[in-house]
UniProtKB/TrEMBL annotation:
Organism: Chelydra serpentina
Entry annotated with the keyword Transmembrane: no
Pathway membership: Protein modification; protein glycosylation
Catalysed reaction, written as an equation: a di-trans,poly-cis-dolichol + NAD(+) = a di-trans,poly-cis-dolichal + NADH + H(+); a di-trans,poly-cis-dolichol + NADP(+) = a di-trans,poly-cis-dolichal + NADPH + H(+); a di-trans,poly-cis-polyprenol + NADP(+) = a di-trans,poly-cis-polyprenal + NADPH + H(+); a di-trans,poly-cis-polyprenol + NAD(+) = a di-trans,poly-cis-polyprenal + NADH + H(+)
Database matches in Pfam families: adh_short
Family: Belongs to the short-chain dehydrogenases/reductases (SDR) family.
Lineage: Eukaryota, Metazoa, Chordata, Craniata, Vertebrata
Taxonomic superkingdom: Eukaryota
UniProt name for this protein: Polyprenol dehydrogenase
Amino acid sequence: MFLIFLYSIDWGAEMLGSGHQEFFFPTQNGNVAIVTGGAKGIGYHTVKHLARLGMHVIIAGNDESEGQEAVRKIKEETVNEKVEFLHCDLASMKSIRQFVQQFRAKNCPLHVLVNNAGVMLVPERKTEDGFEEHFGLNYLGHFLLTNLLLETLKQSGTCSRNARVITVSSATHYVGRLHLNDLQSRCFYSPHGAYAQSKLALVLFTYQLQHLVTADGSHVTANVVDPGVVNTELYKNVCWATKVVKWMTAWLFFKTPEEGASTSIYAAVSPELEGVGGIYLYNEQRTKSTDVSYDDELQRRLWTESCKMTRISDVGSRDL
């Protein structure tokens, strides 16, 4: 397993190392980022390192006390006061819209959106809007959030510094199957199948988003990252036998949450990716995603269906 380390150096830049590679990142003073699920796990370490680079970072999450505690700790560790929490429940389209309204009221730009939050292997249940939870929260919630923030991202990006959308998927997408006629897994529910489908949908969404922003000449890039196998709370829904195996082997086979955040951070701020979009990243390397994810027709069909499900225009404005 690769060992990854992140730390600050005296002049504010940050270095990320993976294996035999090291990356130096410039300071991000004046830039604004939103990280979903930024109060814990991979998201927390993503927020912390972006804040350490001088970014104004907004944690989007559904637990107020957890979020405020994360803000307190990150401010203390990074000496950056521009870290805040805003409530956003990705299982609720109403909550997502309210979050976007609150963000817009700040009248600030948006340079980086990290779609990080997610659930894994949950029992069959529905979101507030009646969607299967993996598909509704992991995918549709981020689809809607990104679309509602897209105009702000477009206004914030420039020809020399593109705004960036980073979406966290998983190697599980390689075994995912997109059932366009049954996206809610009503015919047959499998936690593993539903989770894999949601992660495949995120890859398809990223590629289609890149097609669209390229077509209209926007200074926005969209990339998808695979954090690897990371020791986080996402595994709380696995069976007891798997939990025992995980407990016994995590030190050997699992990345820490900080290590898992490295590729998201790289995608968010690396100068090497300036103007580069529509790629899949693993261990800070461009990697080929599953063959079906490059199916242009499937990307378009999923996008159109997602617009219908979230009740936004497929080609028009993204107004609330």
